[in-house]
């Protein structure tokens, strides 16, 4: 969350909290109080903490079905035990022993939370035009966009000066007259949200009191994040009104919305359009954020199609995503007529500056000794240790703390506030070792980390080597010309095979290291 996002509003926490309490179904504790800034005066949220009969029915049915399914899945693996308490204990235990996995929408939200500010990308923009007659401009500053003065003030008030790469090409297209459709791809943290939010705000005609701009996000939490950016950027435009269309938001039947912008999730937006709370035909700008997550997510694709079918043919389409799988791209190109397609190629992590090692052990205890031995010998800078399950992470943290190490732990059972606080402390260097599960598989950016330890090697759900996650985990150490160290702890034949697969995949030697040989260990730090 960056400079546009944080906007303190003391009254919000409790309102928000009442909504998300109903929406938490997955691993992460996303309480609404974790978004202390999400409700702003720009957002009319009269119904945020109460449910209308109709929406209660719709949302509760879905909520109950999801929850039942989750519980059934868990209980299927639990033996029948004599008391409720024992059963609950088993479910909890099961959670702790299961590898931490996150859905694409959760991973996307995590990446935003974990990331600090914008992500640098030195690649240049690729542009594709279906219609060669569409004019194409590029700008270097927000001033060149001829924005309304108060909107420009809202963009610049936090010290933002020049446009980012994706914004240079996307913004003139998004603001062009006649409007042009755009499909944009650029990795997380490169300025997409800021670009489309600015376009949304600048397209509003405040003399018309009905929804003119619709922005869809895959989840409640992601919609809230976009809303925060919008509220922040529209700080000096009090006349622009916005509304969240998310679970828990209530609009009495017969109401006609007067807000200019709706930011929401597909299910709620569809409900509201069915009940004629607003008219999809009057929407002149449609934004699909996280297009890949949205279209890949079961149920969302159908809902999106239903919404898209009801938009007017002159509605401007803006599709944004960090990635577009081939199928998603085909789908999107089918829907968006004559788009300009802009792509900023992902800046990949690399293993060039990283010395990789593999340590053989036969059990947890040996793994522990190896890690503390190596860290104790090399121990300058900070270390991140990746574990497969919450249980291992907790066990390791306890052992290391007992032995006098300053250790922080991150796993999927933290609230967003706790996660941010632990990461901030680690970034400040207050703890030297960070133990984590897959929560931090990608997105983490801590410059002073010199050692990454894979206490458990990254594998996919079928136990095969997950090379992409490996690259994300260790590719952050050897940056800015520094040398990083990656230690892979291997305790079985399977783990050794995973290690060999990774070595072959990247064609980079993973050296064998004897964790008992302190001379050898000393050498790796030089
Ligand atoms: N022109 C700019 N100059 C400086 N900072 C910017 C600029 N535009 C956006 N930012 C900041 O960069 C960070 C990332 O921007 P933004 O959230 O728009 O990226 P994103 O590509 O939408 O990321 P995600 O896909 O995770 O949502 C934010 O902190 C934002 O405030």
From TrEMBL:
One Pfam family hit: DEAD
Sorted UniProt keywords: ATP-binding, Cytoplasm, Helicase, Hydrolase, Nucleotide-binding, Nucleus, RNA-binding
Domain Helicase ATP-binding: residue ranges: 173-342
Gene Ontology CC terms, in alphabetical order: cytoplasm; nucleus
Reactions catalysed according to its record: ATP + H2O = ADP + phosphate + H(+)
Localization (cell): Cytoplasm; Nucleus
Ranges for domain Helicase C-terminal: 370-521
Gene3D superfamilies (UniProt xref): P-loop containing nucleotide triphosphate hydrolases
Enzyme Commission number(s) of this protein: 3.6.4.13
UniProt GO BP: regulation of gene expression
InterPro entries for this protein: DEAD/DEAH_box_helicase_dom (IPR011545), Helicase_ATP-bd (IPR014001), Helicase_C-like (IPR001650), P-loop_NTPase (IPR027417)
Enzyme class, broadest EC rank: hydrolase
Molecular function, one GO term: ATP binding
Identification of the protein by name: RNA helicase
Organism: Acanthoscelides obtectus (Bean weevil)
Lineage, highest ranks first: Eukaryota, Metazoa, Ecdysozoa, Arthropoda, Hexapoda
